[in-house]
Queue: 3 jobs
Job 1
Amino acid sequence: MTKKVPLYYGAMGLILIAVGIFQSWTVAFGILNLCLISAIMALGVNMQWGYAGLFNVGIMGFTALGGLAAVLVSMAPVQEAWSAAGGDLFLSLLCLAGTIAAILYARRTVSPALKRYVTLALLVAGYFLISHFFIPATERIEAIDPALSGYLGGLGLPVILAWPIGGLVAAGAGWLIGKISLGLRADYLAIATLGISEIIIAVIKYEEWLSRGVKNVTGIPRPVPYEVDLVETDWFLSAVSSLGLSDPSAAAGVFVKICYALLFIAVLAVIMWLAERALQSPWGRMMRAIRDNRDAAAAMGKDVKARHLQVFVLGCAVCGVAGAMLATLDGQLTPTSYIPLRYTFLIWVMVILGGSGNNWGAVLGGFVIWFLWIQAEPLGAWFMTVITMPLPEESGLAQHLMAGSVYMRYLLMGAILLLVMRFAPKGLIPER
Amino acid sequence: MDIANAFALLSNFVIVPAIAYGAQLALGALGVTIIFGILRFANFAHGELMSFGAMAAILATWFLQASGVSIDPLPTALLALPVGILAAIAMALLTDRFVFRFYRRKRSNPIVFAIVSVGVMFLLAGLIRIIIGPDDQSFSDGARFLFTVRDFKKATGLEQGIGVKQTQLITVVVALVVVAALFWFLQKTRWGKAMRAYSDDEDLALLSGINPEKIVTIAWVISAALAAIAGTLYGLDKTYKPFIFLQILLPIFAATILGGIGQPVGAVLGGFIVAFSEVTVTYAFKRFLAYLGPQDWAPEGLVQLLSTDYKFAVSFVILVAVLLVRPTGIIRGKVI
């Protein structure tokens, strides 16, 4: 730990406090919550990139899977849908399992020359068999009261449970994806993961029976109290008046955000502690050895592929947890909002700015970049105001530039990434 | 049995659109493959470069339209295309000079290049949205159709007609001309041969006295020109949407890898294969089969492999499948 770390974190804290004083505490805590989630995502990416040098550009997909888990765990089940199509869905699941088993069995027994053709034939046959049960079932589900449900719903469990489950779901997907794509060279791995993450989003977007797709799921239950209930509870009102605050509803909003922040800090602390422990353990040393000299590590008897898969799954799990937290915080799942620039590449900027291979750096990067991402809009607006000063008020150009100021954030992120890569490739807090 | 009608139906909904889309993908994939062959990295900014070239072409089109210049029935955008090409070339050379050259001198590994290209992508995305705004832009003018479905029906007396949009024909013609010129350049000219040599064996090429900086500059010029043409044609054929170009980047990568990285012929092949797969997998063959079957017979269901929603996802699946099954592509490309 260098002296720089507390200094940076202190400065970041002060900036957030300044936002609270000068803008409003609602804004400050709103930023803080997303900073915390971003920091967790950055930790996940840092495991893959910083520990093992895996270039995963599919973070968006794992985040979305976490969000999906939040829906499937916490929303109330739609009984009608289950009774209308549960049986057929179960049958299609059985067919899927059967197809996979048949393919695995065939690949073991058939001669190598025929392997590919047999696999393909089984795939096609399985596809038609599954869709025979599956398509009518999903149509029935989607027909049930489409304005309100039209999907299976979830399990109706407390939403906090969705966070570890989101991690597990993402880890499962990560294992499958890692198993098939980790053999590729770095930039191919990047393209493959980018493609896979888009496939995941497409499935969440269009399989309405599962996630309501573009109709969005709103009203995901909260792990914290609702503002409307707070302003009617006696202890809260008395606490507000004893603090000398005038507006209970605004105070309720801030209180809810603080509750979220505390939960998120707890999760971040746990993940951070585990990540640090892992990094300083013999396992962490081995991972760095594999990253820095793959062939030497392999010669020493380290199973490079298995270790890569392990760290890939861990990183995906962390991103899944963050995705579930994000959906919980938003209280909704909107598949169309998942775009690579915001959910994949932005996280990469965080990791690279913070310092690849250093967990404290990743967390700091998450904070700094998210803060800039949010504040770039007012900054951009201010910047555009300054450069359009000489223009008259009603000039078309000035108005056009003002409208474009939102997109200053892209320019800013690109500039940060390029400058860091060029002048400080180790990031703010370099690897020890 | 009614083969003529069946074929007309298929042409109108599958073959014609897929050829136009395939030509756009092929142009994009050629640009990616050339950068891959010479600079050896996956350029994530290529989609935004297409967008940038298209944007410049659109601005020039508007300027021409406002000055009353027109080459009716052809779209004005064709006149404006050189502006788009020049803008894209200027942008590519600028980014190379200020961003990529440094890493080339340091001999950084391909991942570093890829990450840096993500930075360039962000910059370009921001720049484009500030200049032209995030909304859809339609800039095609001139005649819309070469011949419409109705004309075709009148001329042939069939139940089903084929309509060909003028933009589709222009796309295919321009693509043919550009690809032919590129292949002539690579096969016949001194610099083209130097480029192929450099791509095959860098050290040997340097020993023979080939100037690497010049090769890289030519590669960027060609790649950017192709990007601008592909982007403009795509915008003409559909509409220009600034955010679509990150999405079209994946089909382009799919085409590149499917054809074999660093292989121009493969890029063209890959572009058409991806386009045809996207269109055929999501097309409902019900009416087509109904024409081929006996009288008054129609298959049950739509006979559609995947719902149209998954159109874009098809190319991602192709991409992932090719990477796993045969990462060298159809025509053996660079070794992974």
Note: Residues 57 and 67 of chain B are 15 Å apart (CA to CA).
Job 2
Amino acid sequence: MRVNVTVNGRSHQADDVWEGESLLYMLRERLGLPGSKNACEQGECGSCTVYLDGVPACACLVAAGQAEGRDVGTVEGLADGAQLDPVQEAFVETGAVQCGFCTPGLLVAAHDLLERDPRPSDTDVREALAGNLCRCTGYEKILDAVRLASDRRAERSQA
Amino acid sequence: MDFLRPTSWADALAAKAEHPDALVIAGGTDVMVELNFDQRRPPALLDLGGVVDLTGWDVHDGRIRLGAAVPYARVITELGDRLPGLAIASRTVGSPQIRNRGTVGGNLGSASPAGDAHPPLLACGADVEVCSVRGTRTVSISEFFTGVKRNALEPDELVAAVHLDAASGPQQFSKVGTRNAMVIAVCTFALALHPRERTVGTGLGSAAPTPRRATEAEQFLAEELADTGRWDVPTALPDSVNGKFGDLAAAAAAPIDDVRGSSDYRKHAIRVLARRTLGWTWNDYCAGRQQCA
């Protein structure tokens, strides 16, 4: 089947999509957007987290056909050209990226949290990121990154 | 495989009548796991994501009609005051990503014994609105679950909505899992006090082949509260009442041994959860909280 979808503001058309295929597979293998990672394929790890109509979802648990006519935002869409999003900058600076496999999903989840709540408490951050597994960092640096990104965003909005 | 994308409720019912073996997909959080792991290859997928009629809720005379495709995240943010038990249970579902997509209607469709929405629906005495091209019927939640992952739906029927009263008293839900997020329940217990009707509602999850009520525990507590005048003048419950309520709740369980827990452990846990949720709801009732929705 054919699926029409807008990804990061650009219209795409994917052909020969298998009816049982996930949005994640379509993004990675048909649209050439490998930022969203494929790890567990059962919604446990969060590494495929994308925005679907502005709401974070596991792309592995969305059927490609369910994205027809909808708006998808992936990690590739967070930066503004060469200018990284504050969340991306903070992940780099605090060492919240090690092997990097969980990073795209965590970036989308953390970005969404800060869009909804620019000043989250640590408990809020832990709850918001509970669906994203990381096997390298021990999470402390990820928490540091979200705190730093929160501060940066506040500075920028005042500037 | 076909992918059916109805955009209206009438088209969805027509599609289900024409393809009774189509697998219904709502949020996809259950169905896609089975497809990804090659555990299921249905002849067709029937996607309800484009049916706007299913994504709303409204209130008539204090009774809420919750559309089948309202995700858990919206139950939490929009209905926490009116449906506290269901909202608390919804908060324990998966992760934010899963709660953004998973729906109460999908939970009913899957009819897993471990579905987190089921115990509060049982405790609230919900009715399931079921539709087909032949018409609409209402199935009491007590009769909806017919076996492990089986429900009362006919092959051409779809869940349209769930109907349940706005809380007239405190409600609680508790869950045993191996961590604080992202777990399938080892077992769950839901409790609702209905002071207007002077009844008590319960629901057990992951503790029997189907979600079920602990009817003897419900009757015992309701009679105890009536006989002692505590519905009108709430005072602390004696330990003997809490204990017997827990024992009767555990007696209603018929759990299996599996990877998540042993039968003995689950029975024990149900006893503890029942006592504990009774403590919480009774404290709320004594403090006069949530008596009016």
Note: The radius of gyration of chain A is 16 Å.
Job 3
Amino acid sequence: MTLQRPPQVGAPSRGRRRQPRPGLRGLKKSLRHHWQLYLLIVVPLVYFVVFKYIPMSNAVLAFKNYNVVAGIWGSEWVGWKNFEMFFQNPVFWTLVNNTFLLSFYTVLASFPIAIILALALNEVRQGLFKRTVQMVTYAPYFISTVVVVSMTILVLAPRLGIVNRGLGFFGIDAIDFLGDPSYFRHIYVWSEIWQTAGYSAVIYLAALSAIDPALHEAAKMDGAGRLRRILHVDLPGIMPTAMVILVLGVGNIMAIGFEKAFLLQNPLNLSQSEIIATYVYKTGLLNADFSLATAVGLFNSVINLLLLLFVNAVAKRLTGNGLWS
Amino acid sequence: MTTYAEQVRKIREPRGDKIFMVFVYLLLIVFLSVILFPLIYIVASSFSDPEAVSSGRVILWPVDFTLRGYEAALSNPQVIQGYLNTVFYTVVGTLISVTLTIAIAYPMSRKTFVGRNVAMSVILFTMLFTGGLVPTYLVVQQLGMLDTRWALIIPQAIGVWQVIIARTYFRSAIPDELGDAAQLDGCSDLRFLWSVVIPLAKPMIAVVALTYAILQWNSYFDALIYLKNPDLFPLQLVLRNVLILNTFSGGAVDASLVLERQQLAELLKYSLIVVSSVPVLAIYPFVARYFTKGILIGAVKG
């Protein structure tokens, strides 16, 4: 995601005639010769402006008191009132807490599991077993969230679910997993891992295959066993990839999958399952309190952006790897 | 070289390695079973007698094999309508998404396109910061798209990730010199794109199309917020209503059969899960390899 600068004016003249120079003159020349390329990009750019940038500007609603008749720009300014209302609402800390813990737990648990799966697969020689494990672990990624959640609900159902039947076999009383708030986070995170572990492992497998075999051979010569080679060759080898994944994961901490939390939610587990995104949906679209919901959403987006920048800076300082390095 | 490699291989494998490999295989078998078990359980239940499912006799193999769950699922008008809607959204949505993705990714991959980095930054920024749910909803509302099929197709038409994949592919697979040569022969940019670039990029286009198609097939959230008319609901939203909210309104059933009806409604859930996931899981083994490549391009910085 690096943004390359166009060649500098006065750069070595090689290819100068073919590569338009930057600045207005270059643009004009490029426009004249390649107007069709600019024509192509018009509609997609309009899409980004309309569906991404206009919503960003619509976020001024957070500082207004939305009035349907007056519209977004005609509504009256109220400063930070909406934010103050949100921060003073007793639900504020619950939401922040739930959102943060849920995401943090997801990142912390899924990150090592994907790496372990990839490392284990990497040790097995290419064959039917390896291909089967890879295919099967990857498959749930293609199942929709609705279906994964309903499978979770069916499997964990209090009376008929297979999990409770299994517990019953050992003489343990049935547990209403989804009705008990204390189970919500575990259900959320482990169903997430069930769905995405295979998918995440693919990225690490690719990084592992890029490790120079000579390093492994050298380690073998020195008498290193498989475990030692994993620790001293494989793990350092996938470090840059792991860091990018971790940064993205932490950067998205407040943007946790709304869809799943919403689907798993029920009145009984709300104390743990209500997160910022579900709250925005309810206040904004169900209660039509547009301004408050926008303020909450904006708060969330800003925290997200700051977290991403912060974690990226830390990762870069510690390991030399980050996004846009 | 081979002799060297053989020498290396001959070096004694440390004794701990065998134990370690046993551990690795065990671990993978655990992974395999944990992921496979719920899937098999659901499929087995879907083919079992409603009574057997309710009394908990199904574990990994259908008990009293029957197709009644599937009959109920496939004769439900909501499900059929949802299926047809989803096919429509998937086909039309994918077509539009792929066209727009190529239209933005190709120019940005050309060195002759001054301003490509500005355009790319404009797009990448949308990955970092968003206006949020309500501001986006208001745009869709102002465009008069609420409760129309467009609401499920247009607002999510272009994915940044797919644009990155397409641009990277165009940049590495289509050298600029090829375009220059074509232009010298009097070939316009659009014609070059249509008759040279797109045919060459077919594998990448297939991957991008599939990612869009699967997203469209599996999405329910846009429908939830933008649609009120049940005739427009995609399959996933129908599924949510039936599976999670338990609002199944089957045909008229004799009042004396309430228990059986309940059991059938429960069985229907298993069958519905299978019916709705089969199309995606059926094509998945054929495209998994390309998908993997796609992930990798998407993961590469640049």
Note: The mean pLDDT of chain B is 85.
